[in-house]
Write a structure and sequence with these properties.
Blueprint: H1 4-10, E1 16-19, E2 22-23, H2 33-46, H3 65-78, H4 80-97, H5 104-120, E3 124-127, E4 150-155, E5 158-169, E6 176-179, E7 194-199, E8 205-210, E9 232-243, E10 247-250, H6 256-293, H7 299-324, E11 327-328, E12 334-335, H8 338-363, H9 366-369, H10 373-377, H11 382-389, H12 397-411, H13 414-425, H14 430-440, H15 443-453
Parallel strand pairs: 1-8, 3-6
Antiparallel strand pairs: 1-2, 4-5, 5-9, 6-7, 7-10, 8-9, 11-12
Helix pairs in contact: 1-2, 4-5, 4-6, 6-7, 6-8, 6-12, 7-8, 8-14, 11-12, 12-13
Length: 462
């Protein structure tokens, strides 16, 4: 296993990563990006085990519902790089179990890679969303055939790929890129049916970063994003060579969607579990700010908080149902129930904006206008800011302002905007969850129940 210091040293490997127009040669020392490296390093240290054969629990493969239940809080605690790594490993395990009748070599390569990743304690980011070009056209009919990542050359010992993957969280801070098709492919789209592992520092890989991290020198008014933030990567594969041992799919169009669906399952489980934590936070902030404002007893405020509580309870129930009803593959890997994962993720994402609206309605305009900590430090206006932010003898103005800053940072600033979009799009948009939910719901059983109620079939008839 790696220590935090060793992890930071591993980032100095010649990778080509860019931020706001400049190549960044020292990620750890960068004033913004370096904070991501530091947070990730702290998680390495927290779970470090010096035993020579130790494997990080963050890279483990769950084999039961209890394993799944225990893994989720570990990943939340360790941060995004642990989450995307675990998701990548579980995706490969799930895909391997669904590809039993493809080339056995693929299954063996997947197993060997997972073992290598666990031994090396690496961090993996999954690259799935292509540039896509004109979305009304399939890959082979794009004006630019590189709109979807594709194989441009096949050599004796591997292939060369070209294209780009977008919206890749933390791409510059991992070691490997799990690169897989973004959707189902058809005959004639063999070159786009490529699944493989690419090192971040491979020749031809370039990553352009964006971040919601606050640019302020004093980040006290950003209690969430001031310390915890991960950049999004625009990952470019400019004729990158991939050896055969790191290729898990090459031309088998019928199996291209297996990887996308497998990743979707684990991404949505991660999204659902994050929603559960966020929903409780929204409830807590709504109640606290209502009390600070003196409005906790007003009927419409109580009703909104009740809706927030019901929302939080329902999605927590969906998460528990997904875990409790998990299935175990022949290889012994447990994966969550697809129906509950997708239904829960859909409900959480579809209602997130309404829950945030309730919170903003309860909190009021001070979410955007409350004085910042530096204002309270000022000798001329600090006491006046405390006086007028206070709502009574038992509610200090600075305390109320800090609540407002946290709500703003979480829901109404750069980080909040990132969450609005990410909560909707991560793991596929709402339509993707509708499709999978319908596929796994027992519609025939529901129809039989309706026919029984209508008296059109006898009770219990097949």
């Amino acid at each position: 296993m790696l220590t935090g210091a060793q992890y930071k040293e591993s980032l100095d490997d010649g990778r080509r990563t860019y931020f706001e127009g400049e190549r960044i040669d020292d990620l750890v020392g960068h004033p913004l990006l370096g904070q991501t490296a530091e947070f990730t390093a702290r998680a390495y240290d927290k779970y470090y085990d010096p035993a020579p054969d130790a494997v990080s629990p963050l890279l483990s493969v769950p084999t039961s519902a209890d394993d799944l239940r225990q893994l989720i809080p570990l990943l939340h605690d360790a941060g995004m790089m642990a989450h995307v790594t675990s998701t990548s490993i579980q995706t490969l395990k799930t895909a391997a179990g669904r590809m039993a009748d493809v080339k056995p070599g693929y299954i063996e390569r997947i197993g060997a890679y997972i073992e290598d990743a666990q031994r090396g304690d690496v961090r993996i980011t999954q690259c799935i969303t292509d540039a896509k070009g004109d979305r009304s056209r399939p890959p082979a009919k794009q004006d630019d055939l590189d709109a979807y990542v594709r194989v441009v050359d096949r050599q004796r010992d591997g292939v060369v790929i070209r294209g780009a993957k977008l919206h890749i969280t933390g791409a510059s801070f991992g070691h490997d890129l799990l690169t897989i098709p973004t959707k189902a492919m058809k005959p004639g789209e063999e070159d786009w049916s490529i699944g493989c592992i690419v090192p971040v520092n491979a020749e031809g890989v370039r990553i352009i970063n964006t971040t919601y991290a606050p640019r302020h020198g004093d980040t006290r008014a950003f209690p969430v994003s001031g310390d915890y933030h991960y950049p999004e990567g625009f990952v470019i594969f400019d004729d990158v060579f991939v050896p055969h041992e790191r290729i898990f799919l090459d031309g088998e169009t019928a199996y291209a969607a297996v990887f996308a669906h497998s990743l979707g399952l684990w991404e949505r489980l991660g999204g659902l579990s994050a929603f559960v934590e966020e929903a409780d936070q929204l409830v807590g902030f709504a109640q606290l700010v209502a009390e600070a404002n003196g409005t906790a007893g007003i009927s419409h405020v109580k009703e909104k908080i009740s809706e927030l509580i019901i929302h939080a309870t329902l999605i927590r129930s969906a998460l528990e149902a997904a875990i409790s009803n998990c299935q175990v593959s022949e290889e012994g890997a447990a994966f969550p129930d697809e129906l509950y994962v997708n239904a829960g993720k859909f409900h959480a994402a579809a209602n997130y904006n309404l829950m945030v609206r309730h919170l903003h309605d309860i909190a009021g305009g001070a979410v955007l206008t409350a004085p910042v900590p530096a204002d309270f430090d000022n000798e001329e206006v600090g006491d006046l800011a405390r006086k007028y932010m206070s709502t009574g003898n038992d509610v200090e103005g600075e305390y109320r302002a800090r609540l407002m800053h946290a709500i703003r940072d979480l829901t109404a600033d750069a980080y909040g905007g990132w969450k609005f979009v990410t909560n909707l799009q991560a793991g596929g948009g709402l339509y993707a969850q509708r499709i999978v939910t319908r596929r796994h719901y027992d519609l025939d059983r529901a129809k039989r129940k309706a026919l029984e109620v209508a008296g059109l079939i006898e009770d219990g008839a097949p």
